[in-house]
Amino acid sequence: MLKVIEQTADFAGEARYCPPAPRPQPRPLGPIALIRTLKRNPLECWAIQHFEQPIVAGGLPIGHVLLVHEPGAIRRVLLDNAANYRKDRLQRRVLSAGLSDGLLSAEGEQWRLQRRVIAPIFARKTVMDFTPAMMGAAEALVDRWAGLGDHATIDVAAEMARVTLDVVERTIFSDGFGSDAEDIRLAMATYFNTIGKISPLDILGAPDFIPRFSRLRVHSTLKFFEAAVDKVISARRQFLAEQPDRAPNDLLTHLLEARDADTDHGMSESEVRSNILTFIAAGHETTANTLSWAMFLLSQSEEWRERVGVEVDRELADPVPGIADRLVETRAVIEETIRLYPPIAAMSRVALDDDDLSGERVRRGSLIVISPYVLHRHRLLWQRPDAFDPRRFLAPARATIDRFAYLPFGAGPRKCIGSTFALQEATLVLAAIMKRFSFQLKPAHAVWPTLRVTLRPANGLPMIISRRRS
Ligand code: HEM
Q1: Please, which residues have CB within 8 angstroms of residue 28's CB and are 6 or more apart in sequence?
Q2: pTM of structure
Q3: Which helix (H) or strand (E) holds 355?
Q4: CA angle 449, 451, 452 (to 5 degrees)
Q5: CA-nearest residue, atom 27 of ligand 1
Q6: Ligand 1 center to residue 111 CA distance, Å?
Q7: What is the pLDDT of residue 220?
Q8: pLDDT for res 68
Q9: Distance, CA 409 to ligand 1 centroid (Å)?
Q10: What confidence tens digit (pLDDT) does each residue in 157-192 have?
Q11: pLDDT given at position 169
Q12: Distances in whole angstroms, Cα of residue 239 to Cα of each of 175, 176, 225, 243, 249
């Protein structure tokens, strides 16, 4: 039974600010309009009934589709009967072009083995040890900003992409990308811009051998990545063989040394490479968007700028491992940010067999779409769903949120392996920025969310920054 999440008494009546979001369509779009809108901005496809009804059955040109936004049914798809629901072709293709044997898109036994080997690498303790690396990247960012002088205009979206890539470099390859770093950054941007566009051929279910123009462009970019990453991997393998006691404490060492506890098998060369690329692809853009939206939302809320400012002045003096756990208000801002603007705005699965979801019949081959964006703004699940209010994520209100009503990182066996890493990173970087800078949106800039693989601000996010006097 659906229940609107209860919030504390002081929660009600405050927090009126509703950040920009497309107004839901009055009724579901017809096939032509749907394909056109999916190509332009999939976020604009959702109709009001999706935000008001638990499960909506619909037809796409590719067949029977169920749009599922009821926590009990979601639990069944992602957890209780997860074996019956496989990641679907479209999602795998859009999210992971070219990374077919990385954790994000592997299936069956290959996925199970990889997940078992990789899980310890993203355990809390390992992630906490990355605090200095993450803070190092955050400090490098704010130091660079300090050099720009007061009232400088920056593109926050580009800056956040830069700092999260720096975190990737410091945590995966602690000895850096080397001389290719700038080329790798450029290749990354091209890659995301290209795979972000959903081809109408994908929606129509055209087979893989029909070339998509956009994919042809990605191919050479991906080849460039692979060569650059291969160079770093082989240099590290050699180093580990020659000087095992001096192994850098980073994700690359962990991946090369990881062994399955039962079989003692490590990962093949191509699995290591695919997973490195997967971590970059899955972790860099998502966290960058989280930070961009968080800065935007803070720029619109004096109350939360002040609250976070007080917290970082008090807590950030000594950035030791575990510090992120003490930044509870900063973290609540991050969690509310990815409620309103979940970087992965939709997940999809294909039913392998008939099933029943809260009374709705699922047929073998049905496509199940779960959109965290719709779920997090569902009228039956949240009070004032479109309003920005991080208090939802502070005790005691936090405990009232159903595990399956809030899914920025998914759920069940395929939930995000990097969630602890991402939350810690976003919290630390936002805290470091808030300690040193105040910022405001460039006047007259219209902010608008758009979905290109990840949910990001269209046309960047220009802001005017000045050093903060705490
Ligand atoms: C705010 C940042 C992030 C968000 C919102 C996010 C979101 C997600 C979501 C929703 C899924 C599940 C997709 C599905 O079930 O269909 C997922 C899976 C995954 N994420 Fe993340 N992610 C983030 C950061 C990261 C980071 C930092 C890494 C790694 C360094 C990472 C690596 C992965 C991998 C490897 C998977 C596939 C797991 C599997 O299938 O076993 N993500 N992520």
Answers
A1: 34, 47, 49, 50, 56, 58
A2: 0.91
A3: strand 355-357
A4: 130
A5: 283
A6: 14
A7: 74
A8: 97
A9: 6
A10: 999 998 998 898 899 888 776 667 777 767 766 665
A11: 84
A12: 12, 14, 21, 6, 13
Q: In what order do the strands lie in the sheet with 152-155?
A: 152-155, 462-467, 437-441
* Per-residue model confidence (pLDDT) at position 99: 61
| Those residues with Cβ within 8 angstroms of residue 262's Cβ, 6 or more apart along the chain or in another chain | none
Phi and psi at residue 103, in whole multiples of 5°? -60, -35
Q: Taking the C-alpha atoms of 224, 228, 233 and 238 in order, what is their torsion angle to the nearest 10 degrees?
A: 130
CA–centroid distance, 416 to ligand 1, in Å, is: 4
Q: How far away, in angstroms, is 423 Cα from ligand 1 center?
A: 12
Say how many Å lie between the CA of residue 408 and the centre of ligand 1: 9
pLDDT at 409: 97
Residue 155: which H helix or E strand, with range?
A: strand 152-155
Measured CA to CA, the distance from residue 96 to residue 94 in angstroms comes to: 6
Closest atom, ligand 1, to C-alpha of 106: 40
Residues in CB range of 445: below 8 A, 6 or more apart: 459, 461, 462
pLDDT for residue 470: 60
List pLDDT tens digits, range 258-309.
888 888 888 888 888 888 888 887 888 899 999 999 999 999 999 999 999 9
* Ligand 1 atom nearest to 114, measured from its CA: 41
Q: Minimal CA–CA distance to 218: which of 187, 192, 191?
A: 191
**Cα 42-44-49 angle, rounded to 5 deg:** 110
CA angle 407, 411, 413 (to 5 degrees): 165
Which residues have C-beta atoms less than 6 Å from ligand 1? 87, 103-104, 115, 278-279, 282-283, 286-287, 290, 338, 343-344, 347, 408-410, 414-418, 421-422
Report which ligand 1 atom has the smallest distance to the Cα of 348. 16
**What does 382-413 look like in DSSP terms, one character per residue?**
-SSTTS--GGGGSTTGGGGS-TTT--TT--GG
Residue 72 pLDDT: 97
* Percent helix / strand / coil, the chain, rounded to 5: 55, 10, 35
Atom of ligand 1 lying closest to residue 104 CA: 37
In which residue ranges of the chain is pLDDT below 50?
A: 1-2, 6-13, 97, 196-201, 203-212
CA–CA separation, 418 and 375 (whole Å):
21
Residues with Cβ within 8 Å of 136's Cβ and at least 6 positions away in sequence, in order, are: 170
Q: Name the residue of 416, 419, 453 to mutate for ligand 1: max ligand atoms within 8 A of Cβ.
A: 416
